[in-house]
Amino acid sequence: MKISVIGCGYLGAVHAASMAALGHDVVGIDVDAAKVEALTEGRAPFFEPDLPELIRQGTAGGRLSFSTDIADAAGAGVHFIAVGTPQLKIGTGADLTYVNGAIAALLPHLRPGDLVVGKSTVPVGTAERLSPAVELAGAELAWNPEFLREGHAVKDTIAPDRLVYGVKLVPSGPLSHRSGAVGILNEVYAQAIANDTPLVVTDFATAELVKVAANAFLATKISFINAMAEIAEVTGADVTQLADAIGYDDRIGRKFLNAGVGFGGGCLPKDIRAFTARAEELGRGESVAFLKEIDAINMRRRDRVVDLVVDSLGGSAYQKKVAVLGLAFKPNSDDTRDSPALDVAVRLHGLGARVIATDPEAIANSRLRHPQLIFGTTDEAIAEADAVVVVTEWNEYKELDPVALASVVRTTIVVDGRNCLDVTKWREAGWTYIGLGRR
Ligand SMILES: NC(=O)C1=CN([C@@H]2O[C@H](COP(=O)(O)OP(=O)(O)OC[C@H]3O[C@@H](n4cnc5c(N)ncnc54)[C@H](O)[C@@H]3O)[C@@H](O)[C@H]2O)C=CC1
Ligand SMILES: O=C(O)[C@H]1O[C@H](OP(=O)(O)OP(=O)(O)OC[C@H]2O[C@@H](n3ccc(=O)[nH]c3=O)[C@H](O)[C@@H]2O)[C@H](O)[C@@H](O)[C@@H]1O
């Protein structure tokens, strides 16, 4: 099939390259000329495992091309919308400028029978609003939310754990004939679907809500365990053991119960805020009011890490050298959008600490956001440090040798903002180990 993907960021570039790997002819469109140039040359414009190989194979094999000109989407039968929906500059709702702009730009190039498929995460009601303009062009609109995780994005796209199609309901039609979109999407994903891949075919509103509900649930799980960490901290309990113990109950599950500096990234934080804003618009603010508390617990964890560093330094970080290990919002990503790790580095810098921050992949993005920070290698960060703080659980930080490091730092204090280090090993090497919600 011929497919266009409008928007080639963290979601769109992976989607375009994966669709080509699944056997389709794909053109990726982005307004960012530098991104398109990199992609056209077969390079990934950001760090994502397995993506460079896929882009190289796709472009070299002639199945995958990129363009800044939306007119190049003409001729494709399926057009995925994968542009950003960031938080509004004023307010907490989603900024739909890019979605509206992408659809408006695509409309003149649609042919009757084309399918436009929204992948961007949008407030409930968006597809219903956009559908008439698409239909006027003789095309159909569907919403097919994406659940990929950065760091596993290629795998999640090539072999999704479920697919959700939001389509326009034809009230009298049988389930499988609600719209032509279902058959077209099944064809798109034919090579990605295993016999047991769950498929949910539903209306626009449910599909849009599934996406934000999933992210809201994940955020809630993380803030729940971080709230338990807060209680553990005043009672001498250990939140990691607590998470293990409740996680053995498979109704609860151990996943997403890692207490630490909290969640960040380009999705969870902005999605729970946009969901709250949309619910308020709909007069149902009270139904998701708890998400404000989820957000508040999450932000308090960043304060907590900074406080622990300051306390460990005797009450002031001023002029103290602090090694900040990690800047990305999670390992295996260079993404620093709303990153708790970067935030901790910025706050410590703001308190007058001599911060040297490091990350295997995210220094360039961090420097763009916060040029005032000083960045270096792990060795440069740790040398003569008064305190070491780990805020992204990259494997290379988990594997650091506390015995060797002890002779390099000025003071053997480590704040483990991700509860990812081996406590016994670090303590045996003479370090004052401070975790979150841990004895
Ligand atoms: N990053 C992720 O892991 C996931 C993201 N999502 C959702 O996907 C959407 C995109 O997110 P990201 O890829 O992370 O954002 P991003 O900011 O990395 O990428 C968006 C891209 O769209 C481009 N763009 C904006 N307007 C355009 C237009 N009119 N025509 C063509 N390109 C245009 C931008 O230049 C940018 O490259 C958001 O709604 C997000 O919530 C959903 C699941 C996973
Ligand atoms: O909508 C999206 O964009 C995506 O958002 C998240 O994916 P992602 O942001 O890539 O990362 P996650 O693995 O969910 O981690 C989010 C944040 O939570 C933190 N986290 C995660 C798990 C945990 O136990 N504790 C914890 O603090 C991570 O460090 C990270 O900062 C969802 O997991 C994806 O399903 C979804 O598609």
For this structure, the quaternary state is single chain
- Care to count the β-strands? 14
How far is the first residue's CA from the last residue's CA? 57 Å
Read across the widest sheet, the strand sequence of neighbours is 3-2-1-4-5-6
Which hetero ligands occur in this complex?
Answer: 1,4-dihydronicotinamide adenine dinucleotide, uridine-5'-diphosphate-glucuronic acid
Which radius of gyration do the C-alpha atoms yield? 23 Å
Question: Approximately what portion of the residues adopt beta-strand conformation?
Answer: 5-15%
CATH class of the largest domain: Alpha Beta
Main sheet attributes: strand count, strand direction, barrel closure: 6 strands, parallel
CATH-level-4 superfamily name of the largest domain: NAD(P)-binding Rossmann-like Domain
Q: pLDDT below 50 for ≥5 consecutive residues: which ranges?
A: none
In words, what does this structure look like?
By secondary structure, this protein is an alpha/beta fold. It has two domains: 201 residues, 3-Layer(aba) Sandwich (Rossmann fold), CATH 3.40.50; 200 residues, Rossmann fold (3-Layer(aba) Sandwich), CATH 3.40.50. 41% of the residues lie in helices and 13% in strands. The protein has 17 helices and 14 strands. Strand 10, helix 13 and strand 11 form a beta-alpha-beta unit. Helix 8 packs across helix 10, helix 8 packs parallel to helix 11 and helix 11 packs across helix 12. The protein binds 1,4-dihydronicotinamide adenine dinucleotide and uridine-5'-diphosphate-glucuronic acid.
